[in-house]
Design goal:
The structure holds three protein chains of three kinds. By secondary structure, chain A is mainly alpha-helical. Chain A is built from 14 helices and two strands. The radius of gyration of chain A is 25 Å and the shape is globular. Chain B has helices at about 1-25, 50-65, 75-90, 105, 115-120, 130-135, 160-165, 175-185, 200-210, 225-240, 255-260, 275-280, 315-325, 330-340, 350-355, 365-370, 380-395, 405-415, and strands spanning about 30, 35-45, 70-75, 95-100, 135-140, 140, 145-150, 155, 270, 285-290, 300-310, 375. By secondary structure, chain B is of the alpha/beta class. By secondary structure, chain C is mainly α. Helices cover about 65% and strands about 0% of the residues of chain C. Chain C has helices spanning about 5-10, 30-60, 85-90, 95-125, 130-140, 145-160, 165-170, 175-185, 190-200, 205-215, 215-235, 235-240, 250-255, 265-295. The radius of gyration of chain C is 24 Å and the shape is flat. The two termini of chain C are about 25 Å apart. The chains are: A mainly alpha, B alpha/beta, C mainly alpha. Chains in contact: A-B, A-C, B-C. At the A-C interface, helix 1, helix 2, helix 4, helix 5 and helix 6 of A face helix 1, helix 2, helix 4, helix 5 and helix 6 of C.
Amino acid sequence: MAILPVDVTEVASTPGGRKRGDGRVAVGFLAPSMLGLLAFTAFPIVASLLLGFFDWPVIGDHAFTGTQNYESLLHSSEFKTAIINTVVFVILYVPLNIVISLGLAVWIGPKIRPRGLYRTIFFIPVVTPVVANAAIFSLILSPNGLIDSLSLTWFGVQAPNFLGSTTWAMPAVVLLSIWQGFGYNMLVFSAALDAVPASLTEAATIDGASPSARFFRIVLPLITPSIFFAVVLTLISSFQVFTQAYVLTGGGPGNATTTMVLYLYEQGFRFFNLGLASAIAWVLFLIILIITIVQFIGQKRWVHYDQ
Amino acid sequence: MRTSRLTSIVSIALATVLIAGCGGGDSGSSESGDKGVTLNWFMWSGSDVEKNAWLHIADMVTQKYPDIKIRFETAPFNDFWTKLTTQAASGNAPCVIGLQGQRAPQFGNLLVPLDDYMSKAGIKAADYVPSITTGLQYKGKQVALPYDVGPFVMFYNKDAFKAAGLKEPAMGWTTDEFMSDAKALTKAPKYGFWAQSDIGQLLPWVLSASGKSALNAEGKLDVDTPEWHTAAQWYTDLVSKDKVSAQIPSANSSSSTANQFLAGNAYMSLDGPWDLINAREQAKFKVGIAPMPAGASGSKTWSDGSGFGVTRDCKNPDQAFKAVSVMVGADAENYLGKLGRAYPALISTQNSWYEGNNTQDVKPVMDYSLTNSIPYTTIPKWQQAVTAFSKQAVATYNGQGSVNDLLSQTQAQGGS
Amino acid sequence: MTSDTSSAIGTHPPEPAVSAPTPVIRRSRAAVLRAVLSQTLLSLVALLFLSPIIWMVLSALKPSAEVFTVPPKLFGSRIMFSNFPEAWNYLPFGRFIINTVFVASVGTAITLVASALSGYAFARLNFRFRGGLFVLYLSTLIVPQEVIVIPMFLVMKEIGWVNSYQALILPWAFTAFGTFLLRQFFLTVPKELEEAAKLDGCGHLRILSRIFVPVAAPAFAVLAVFTFIGYWNSFLWPLITVSDTSRMTVPLGLQLFLGQQGQRWELLMAASTIAMVPTVALVLALQKYLVRGIMLSGLGGR
């Protein structure tokens, strides 16, 4: 692995080399990741872009169809439903994820013992296989499952048929996603909170600021960069939501939990319209790209990088 | 200028790879040594026991034809088709593949017609159960030879029937008797019957009530019909009006009727004989099977099975056919039948299944149901149709959508 | 929620709570009570949170037909410890675990090396198009995996890597995420540290390995854990590229329990429990570095 052009880098980086630029060294340093990204990410991306302009069934003739795939998406009511479902998921999932992960990160403060254990506990679902997580949730959420039975014994009420109801299926998918996903952000926020200088909050305590004022006026602004980071990455991943819906509800009932990537998967891997699937991918890509750019533009208004 | 040149270079490069990728595979089979060949055989499997059964079959091939070696490739059943399609999309399909009858219209194009090979080798289609040989045809040609077959039948919990003082379902029982039994058995949270959102679960009821299948005489999907409406409404009522079946939990495998039946949560469910031996091993009660209850059109059901075919990507089709002929031959069928892995499609070997698994008691039901079954014929866009169906059926059966939604959406997906 | 903890939040990470017990803090019993309450409540929340996992383990101990028993019971009619060996022998599960550990470890190692090099280049080297190239790197993060799987399979087929370890490892070893994470960290390393080394005539590679790597250990821990988990849980790609049980990974193997003939839920649960052990152990072991690593790499703080 370490078969890097050592000589080149050593020579090129003699004092003074920096002023001329480190182009040649940079080539050496970037070569592994760049070649890897080109071969295994960039090339397939371009290929999928091209596929989007073809009718590309699994067996039979491939034909160039121009923008036909995109046009049929434009007129597909199912694709519209998939977009709406995805947006609903994002709107429910992202704020809840951020609030819960931030809340728990604050809660598992220095007074809690043992902190490491608690952090690990909340991280466990991140590392368990998704297949297993979904299997458990379907056992728990089904009629006559754990929740339904407990609700019947304790309150005498039947719980909703979570996965089989058009109203409850999406909240169930969100629940599973949050349960197995917020551990990442919690760790990010834990780290950010640990890095807030004690002197600042102590000073505020002496000035008589209430705990909540201390948190919202001092601590929160200081960790806005990490909140920004978490929001950006969580948004990207939540637009790509797939596995949770696929294994828990199969996209149903009706089309209640058919998200964009699930729709893509159905078209691409079940019906094998490779061209149409690629077109979906590119619509998704553009949506995420635009939202990410908007976030980067908007961050100046609320993210505090100064200290 | 620069970008346009770049684009053209990239697209040429891409086209080369993509088109090359679709031309033909050399990885489906390869020469090994001076005269022998190694054939890739792709087949689904679950447990190690199941996999070893297939490996044993592969050994049988090599024993008979020492110059043919088999390389066994496998995937879980639910994901088998995803993988097969990916391989096919890149012109990389294995030489010999497993094929389910209902998938024949989807994958038939991938496979070599076997009729000439069969007549040369003296293999007669008539030796196999007719419904599955028909099921494994594509455009009138035999594209795979069957190893197993099974009619969809009613599984029932003998202990529950006894406890409720009911007569066990027998040959010639009717839909009305089914309904009154189901009502008598249902005491929530235990149900007389277990409904599921697959189209295959509804189809036998439509057949028995009206004689109509999912396809019309021209072989096109035809489910938005009065017959289907009536049957689907009746089935929906089982869940939301008569409440002899639980609400449908979801459209994924966890709601599988087999699990609920085995757990004793439902006393009747439609299933295939391929689940019978496992059910009898796992269940804490006695498991019986009965034919479909007779409706206005009698007791009708569908049967499906699987077989093996040779792909067009295969470089050694002659040897591949030889291998297939062993895999569905008498020795292999006797072995699979005795093991309980398959109810043999080769009629002369079916006794091995009854004798090897102490299932002689179900022989009359099996024979009757097989005779009264139609092949599970489908269409190329079957996956589109059944995906739409099973998703919408969850909502409709649970009372959150109409039968009209269900059938018109299914028709729209698979019709065009 | 924040109660009194914020006063101590800022103390430095590894042993934060040891902030001096000043008279100011020695307040009423109410504060103590609140702390006890907070701790107890948190334990309850954690228990509730873990209940699905606990349910998984309990289900793994039930006889086959009782996973779906209505109403659900904590324990089946018998405690089936034998489900664990049975799950292990039902499939070559040991093989799956060895495969996954191998793939995840090698993949993680390659990711760490490649990301360190490129992260260093973006953080410390001056070259043309650096900004633009970096944005290009980042934009690859936005592409869903499902998009590139099919063309990727074509590539694998062309180079003859189908059903190989390389195919499982390499496509995901060059991630923009790793580059991004390590660049963020490297930017926070004081320039003085390397200036001294430079005067000693050290090249960039040596600066990276002698100075940045040791200082960045926590960031590497974060990247290692995240990458390892990514490989460990990956499903779609192994499904498409692996064609026999000798190369199968754990998530793929788990699917085999829900086969065509007889779904064995109790074995699925037992196998899932077994599969949890290595990753939970890894996280537990690296937990301390994880939080520090996120903090220092500028992802958490700044």
